[in-house]
Amino acid sequence: MLGKERRLKPIIHITDRASKHLREVLTTRANSPNRCLRLVAAPAGAGLVLDRPRDEDKVVEIDGRPILHLHPILAPVLDGATLDYADSSDGPQLTLVK
Q1: Which among 7, 28, 30, 46 is least buried, having the fewest CB atoms inside 10 angstroms?
Q2: Residue 8, CA distances (Å) to 4, 50, 53, 54, 60 in order
Q3: For residue range 63-96, what is the model confidence (pLDDT) as tens digits?
Q4: Per CATH, the architecture of 8-97 is what?
């Protein structure tokens, strides 16, 4: 169960398109209920990885369901950002805009 301090307010806004994509990834690739999607820092910005929830995570929920986990050091950096899913010249991609 998530501690209240971990989900008091949305850390980032997730658009409906991004939410749908993240749910699909969780449904098709997370083969265990103990798996989560984690937004991590990457050389080109940010990336998503399948991981295990950690006690210190900041959690973004949609409709009461945890959808995205963030390390507490990364959470303040992303506070107020928007995660979207859009088509680009390289194909569909998640985009993060602060």
Answers
A1: 28
A2: 6, 23, 17, 17, 10
A3: 888 889 999 889 888 999 999 998 888 888 888 8
A4: Sandwich (2.60)
